[in-house]
Amino acid sequence: MDQVKSQLQTVRARLNQVPALQKAEDATKIPKEYLVLGGGFVLLSLLFFGIGAGSLCSIVGFVYPAYKSLLAIESKTRGEDTQWLIYWVVYCFFSMIEVFTDFLLYWIPFYYAFKLAFLLWAMLPQTKGAKFLYDSFLKDFLKKNESKIDAALDDAKRTAGSISQEIAAATAEISAAGLNAAADYAKTKEKDGKKNE
Length: 197
Known about the structure:
This protein is an all-alpha fold. 87% of the residues lie in helices and 0% in strands.
């Protein structure tokens, strides 16, 4: 029991550095270490049971890395830029695979727990998981298929350009027809008004 109390005191000492927790403790009259433990338990429960787990994984996989990327852009050291660029390449590759296999992933128990663990492993500077994946797999794969990827992107760009031109032309035709119809309607109303006078 003494070990539990000493651990709680250690946790409380660290939590004293967070002013928002002090406000929450004052408002609820519940010790901040219990608030944090309860909040962590609720988040883990939601994650394991899949309630909002997709959103939580997206937030964890995007918000912290985006913030760290902005800091890396503003810093003078180059190593941080490279680390976060590699993370975004791995994140995009993972997201593309996930889009096409989503119907299968639904059946994997605790998928979002595994996804969250993967994203944390990939993003944290202590583990540098994204760099490991990039160096051991993605770098060679992307280099080998670079010409195919470029050709697919060029094709998509041409297709998108022609589709946007067709949409612009159709929009112009619809707008012109709408303006003509409005003008005809206004002329009809004007003639009807003169006849009634």
